[in-house]
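Hey L., structure's done. Input below.
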Amino acid sequence: MADSKIYRVVVIFDDGVAGSCGAIDFEGAIWFVPKWLPFPNEGYTKPERMIRLDQFQSQKFDPQAKGPGPFAGADFVVNDPLPKMLFFGELTQQLKSKYAVLDRPDVKFRTGGSLN
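Output:
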């Protein structure tokens, strides 16, 4: 079971809407995690999908950004618009072949609760 630093990344989607997405450090890279699948009784959570950040042009804020909306507290911003379907839609074979994305990876992260 892994422990990981959590980041906040600002993303502009292909429909022009800006938002933020959580990300984690995993196996030497930073990965977006748009949705977590909780297992509270077991004391862990699993990513529904993971999208590798370094495949996109981005900028790191050091220290964290101070700004309005999604920029407040951000660690990174992605420079180019990204497909919203990559984050929230069905992962098609086309998306999987175009981007470094892990669909329902078998990775567990501690959240508390009992560790059965």
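The first strand starts at residue 6 and ends at 12. Residues 93-98 form the longest helix (6 residues).

-- N.
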